[in-house]
Amino acid sequence: MTKPNGNSDEFSNLLVEVIDKTLSSLGEAPKSAIYLHLEKVFNLNRSEIPARIDEFSSGIEDLFGLGARILEIKIIQNLHSEVGVVWGAEASNSRILPDLTFKQYVGLVRKYFEDARRYEDQTSTLMTEEDALEKYR
Predict the structure, then answer these.
(1) Hey, what domains does the chain have and what are their CATH numbers?
(2) Angle at CA of residue 68, ends 59 and 85, nearest 5°
(3) SS3 track for 14-52
(4) What is the CA radius of gyration of the chain?
(5) CA–CA separation, 52 vs 73, rounded Å?
């Protein structure tokens, strides 16, 4: 079974990779400039972003103004693609989801990811009925 923080660490690494990939779509120089801005102005290193997601959001908003929302949406889309979950406006709770902050969206995806990993860990110890009959005959 995974260590208690294993799933959280795994998600944090995935989130950093997704943010990096999304920022790379702007070009390598702009990506480097964004990370430099986050370090200089917000004292926020790339590896700290998952634990300080509000400050990351504030940092890109500081740089892009309202355009930061577009970047956040792209990060969420890429994150959903990596994790394999999509929440759309046509979801049953469509009145709630559009009003979530970037931090809340990331939190929902993190919870889904960690719950799915926990479920995989628990079911990996299960055996098929055929194996059980063979083993316990």
Answers:
(1) 6-135 (1.10.1200.200)
(2) 105
(3) HHHHHHHHHHHCCCHHHHHHHHHHHHHHHCCCHHHHHHH
(4) 19
(5) 18
Q: What mean pLDDT do residues 49-73 have?
A: 94
> What is d(CA 36, CA 20) in angstroms, rounded to the nearest whole number?
13
Q: Is 14 exposed, middle or buried (0-12, 13-18, 19+ CB in 10 A)?
A: middle
Alpha carbon distance 52, 29 (integer Å): 23
User: Which tokens go with 123?
Assistant: 């079911």
Q: What is the largest CA-CA distance in the chain?
A: 68
Q: Which pLDDT tens digit goes with each residue over 91-119?
A: 444 444 456 788 888 888 888 888 877 76
* pLDDT tens string 11-44: 999 999 999 999 999 999 999 999 999 999 999 9
